[in-house]
Input
Amino acid sequence: MKYILGLLFMGAFLNAVDCDNLGQVKKGIMLVQGQFYVIDEFGEHAVQNCFVDKELRNRTQQEIIEYLNSGCCIFVKKYSDGQYAIQGHVGLPGGGVGGATVGFWGGKFLVHFVGHGIIGVVSALTGPFSTATAGGLEACFFPIIESASNVVGLGAGMALAVLTGPA
Output
């Protein structure tokens, strides 16, 4: 069973809030001398270091606070054998749907414009064979141009989604 926990810091104790019941503190996470403990209704359980995300291992309480303040989250997962695992999740800003759309189509158009423009210029230089040259070059390079335009479009879309998303 997987619990997504929000963390509230109170001294050396990290209280975890069950997202389904935000009014009640059901579970807790404690960090004592680099060792994580999960507190549930049955008591306190030490989390083995191999079950702690490498991003969270060997960090001080202050480093964990900075990690959470940077928009990251901590997930606690309980395995069927009763062991707990602690995983970090990096939260990236995003959500600018309009920016993602403009970025994707803008990047895709730019790659097509440059690729087919180069084919047009090279074809024009061949004189009377320009039609045959353009057809041959388009047949050879269209799949490459299309693939490159998708990659650039996705990258530009993600970049603009992050830039135009909520702060």
User: Anything to note?
Assistant: Strands lie at 2-10, 13-18, 27-32, 35-40, 43-46, 73-78, 84-89. Residues 130-164 form the longest helix (35 residues).
